[in-house]
Each structure stands twice: as C-alpha cells, then as structure tokens.
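Researcher: Quick sanity check before group meeting.
Model: Go ahead. Protein one:
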Amino acid sequence: MRVGLFVTCLVDLMRPGIGFAALELLEHAGCEVVVPATQTCCGQPGYNSGERDSAHALALKVLEEFERCDYVVAPSGSCAGMIRTHYPDLFRGEPVLLARIERLCAKTYELSDFLARVARIETVPGTYAGTVTYHDSCSGLRELGVKSQPRELLAKVPGLVLKEMRANETCCGFGGTFAVKMGDISSRMADDKCANIDASGADAVVLGDLGCMLNIEGRLRKRGNTRTRVLHVAEVLAGKVEA
C-alpha cells in the first residue's frame, strides 16, 4: 500500500529524527512510503486563531500533495486530528472540494493508530532497556481515539516496561497557542504533569506529539529534572533512542 508520510512542520524543524523513525516503521510494516518534498503545515495554528483563509489554503495544499496516496499517516495526533476532524469545516459550501477532502480525511491516521489498526504489525524494530510512562496527548486521544494503540505497540518492544502515571489523560498545558495566550495556567498544568511523571519513577516519558514533548521536556528541565528522558513513541518503536 502507498502511504503518504505527513512529517509535520514541527517535526521537520525541531526533531527530524522522529520523521525518520516514522519512515522506518512504515517501511517495516511493508508500506511504500511517499514523502512529498513540498509539504509544510496542516494549517492548525491558523485555524485555531481564526485565520480560516490561510488554513483553507494549506488544507488545499495538503489535499493536492496527498490525495493520490492510499493512506496519509502523521506522527502527531494533533496534525492528524486537524486533517481528519476539522478540514471538512473549512470546505462547507464547496461540495466538490468537500467530497475530495472527506475522502482524504477517511484515510488519514495518526502513526500508532495506523500501525496497530491498519498495518497490524506483529513486531517492531526497536528495543529498550528500562521503564517508561505514557502521556496521552489531547488531540490524539479526544479527536482520534488514540489510547490503547501506542500501548499495544510499546508492549512489543523487548526490554521495555510501562509504568502508568497518575492522570495520564490530563493535558500537559501546551495546546498550541494556548501556551502563549494563557501562560500562567499552562505552566501550572505542565507542573502538575511533571509531578506525575516524577512520581511514576519511570526512566522516560513517551508520547505521540512533539508539541507536548517540547512543553514537558522544557518544564522538567526547568524544575531541575535532568534525568527523565522525553521520547516520541516512533523513536522508541524504531529503536532510534540515543544511548
């Protein structure tokens, strides 16, 4: 099957290794992977800020780049959720485009959801010697139902032990522009999340959205925790975790 990898702009700019790990996992699953070189943003920041025209333009760009793929996969519940859940709202009143957009939405998946539910992989390339805890990022959980899928995949990693933290479904306080607009509230939410990570005693916190990763890692370090690693689930599954 021909799978388009939507790398996401944040991964491309901040932690491209996640994109390469996702690519390896999709190839491990037997997919023919296409990575359009012109891809940029899904349009979520503009959409959330009321910039519908810019979001509409970016959604059209994504449509043109990926609609010939059998599936579209993103290592981000936030971006996959934007495409699958919110793109149709941008094309109300445009029936021809809306039909194309809805077909794109139907074949768009977050990475762990695709690997567990569509590709149904039996093994993963990675190994991990240690304990991890998992943070459920809001968009993947609430918009796409991503909950058991990453845990099922992590259970296939030799050596890995999962220790659930308290309130693993509670927001870390990032929320895209929320962290900028409501900085004090965001910081308090991040502190609560970091306290739960600390209490778990895990060697690392694993999650599926880079925005949450950057928020949590920054707050952990500011609180003096230099021990706990912050890892994307793709990095762990693919064995792309630096020693």
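Researcher: Fine. The other one?
Model: Protein two, sequence then structure:
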Amino acid sequence: MDEDNIKIDVAEEKDCRRIISIEIQKERYQEERKKILADFVKETALPGFRRGKVPPQMIAGRFADEIHSEVLKSIIPAAYSHAVISKELQPIGEPVFKDVVADEDRHVSFNVELEVAPEINIDNYKGIEVKNQKVKLEDGEIETVLENLRERYADYEKVERACAEGDIVVIDYTPLDKNGEEEKDKRVENYPIQLGAGTILSDFEKELIGCKPGETKEVEIDYTEKDKPKELSGRKIKYRFNIKEVKEKHLLELDDDFVSKMDPQLKTLDDLKKDIKKRLIEQKHKEIESKRQEEAIDKLIDKNPFEIPLSMIERYKESMREEAKAMGGLPEGEDAKKEQEEILDKVSRRNIKRYFLIDHIIRKEELSVEDDSVDKEIEFMTEGSSRPVEEIKTFYKKGSEQYNNLKRSLLEKQVFEIILGGNKNLKES
C-alpha cells in the first residue's frame, strides 16, 4: 500500500497492548472500488443483459452497498498488514477491529487493538553467577533403588488363602440396578487389583480384603463429587463381585541371578550397585544443572523487567487449571482457590518471561540447530534405552511436535552455555 494513501499512529498501552489508528485516503478507496466494480460487472447478469454485459453505472447503483462492503473487506486487512510491517510490530493473537468509519467521500478510518511480543533489549546475560553445588549420595539411596527393583521384578504366586494388602486379586464385578439385578452389559471380567496400591476406591478395597477365591460379595459405593467417571459423581452404586484368584507377592533374593534376570549385561550384584551409583550421580548432575539454569533465568528476569501479554498469561493459567483438574487437584474453599490463583499467576508470568528471554538470546546470538544435530541426539537417546529403536524414532518423527520440542531444547542448551559462561563440570563429593 502506498505510504501517501495511508496514515498510521500507534499508541502504546500496558501489558504489551497497542492501539493502531489507521486512516485510508479516498484515492485508495476509489482505486479499490474500481477493481471490485470490474469484478461485479464481469460476474453479474441482469434481465436483458448477459453476464459481463451489464453497464457499470447500473451495477454501481444497484449493488452500491455490496460493493462498498467488499472494498472494506479488501482494504482494511491490507492496511492493517501494512501497518504491522511498517511499524515493525509482532502481533500475538488475533487483532480486534473497531470504530470503522467511511464518510461520503469514502475516506476510511478505523482502530485496531492487539497485543504484541514484549520489547526486550538486554546485554548483561553472559556469565551469570549462580551457586555451584557438589553431587552427594545420601546413605541408603542405592539400597532404596535395589528394593524398588525387587518390587518391580517381584513374582506373584497363586494362593488359596484369604487376600491381604500387597496381594493381587483378580475379580469379576457387575453393577446392580434398583431391583438388585445385575446389569450384565456393564459386567467387567478378570480385573486385576493390587491391594494397598490405591488404584480403586477405598470402600471397595475394604470389602475385598479378607475374601477367598470363589467368594461372592456385594458392596455399595457412595461416589463423591470428586470421584470419576463424572457420570457416577454424587451417586450410590451397588456392585456384586466374585474373587477369581488371589496372588501372593514374592520378592526375589538380591543375588547374581537377580542381576542377570534384570539386566543380562550385568553379571554380579556389585556390578548392579556400581551401575545404580553411576545413574544416581548422573541424575543428580542433571538436577543440579537444571536448578542452576533456572536460578540464572530468575536473576535475568529480576534484573530486566518487561511486560508480557495478558492473554498469554490467561491461556497459560487455563492450561494449568485443566491439568490440575485432570489430576483431581482443584482446591475447595475461597481461600484455597485464591491461593491457587496467585500461584498460577506467578508461575505463568515467570515461565512466559523465561520463554521470551531465551528466544531473545537465541535471536541476538543467531543460534541455530541443524536437523543433523537433532538426528544425532535421537540416535544417542536410543542407545541403552529399553524401548525399541524404531518406536523412539517414530515418536521423534521429523516435523512432529516432539521433534520440534527436542530441537528447541538443544537451542536452549546453547543459550545456557552462554548464560552460565561455561562453568566447570560439577564434581562428586
């Protein structure tokens, strides 16, 4: 759009809001009107005239409102795009067009409300000093991992006694209707439950404990508003269940046979302990490094305040609310809800600023990650993984969300190398 035919003013508001005032001169309106009128003439047929043969003056008179509407549909978005480019704005979300005015001479003016990306201009982001920590294994950590492995690889033996906590019971169960008859279409068979694991409602589990194989009982469950599925919330449902099997857990001895069963590449219990120690140290290294990175980000945020769009904050908060809702973690009571909202607001603002700061450094340092580097990272991830190689490669298929997220994480790795100034690796104490 010709600069002589448009006037643009941008007013800065709080929280990255901008109001663009645009005036389009009548010459630009008339120019676009000629094009639209020509299209109408080309496509319109009227009684006594073939398509394309209706006099333009007749079309202009009969379809004046329609032509005017089409002109506005064309020049307003074009003017907005021109304003965004010429004023070097970075819109976030959809613009809101308001106060559209077209006078008799077709001098057009309108306002656009929108949010833009934050303006960040920092140079003091290299070599941020953060506390350095040493890796330290606490007493009993290796033994805890060993016990967890025993639990994971435990054997379960079928027994005929009454079931107790820790056992696995296999049941058939059926909800009963108001008359006490089984709703056979809702019957569930061969359903395994580990008692004490918290996978079923406590009232149901209490009735199971002490039952023997072959025993049939009934239990009434009073579902609360929090219970799932939603259609059962607040209802009372009676179930009839039958104990089909009781399986007793047997933990394997911690010996060389256990080690070879768990990982054929390891031969002895000492080999396993060394492997666990190595993995624990690697995990603690990652945790400490992640903590240092986030501490550096917090320092940058504190030293370089900037505004962020409110709509992004609200979207982020809503996604966290939905996640909390799915996990059954929504608070009750006004005070608890208020406290949660304060936490959500704080976390949202911090994480959105984190994103923009990192993005700013990526652009300022002109950082990039080639696809070859991503592919090498995927290959590295397949080494030593228990998951099939092809499954991992499919998950990180090029162009997928997972692939792009991995690419972003490699970019962030470069950013943190710059932010932390290449500090020495941490040493085990």
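Researcher: One line on it for the slide.
Model: Residues 423-429 have pLDDT under 50 and may be disordered.
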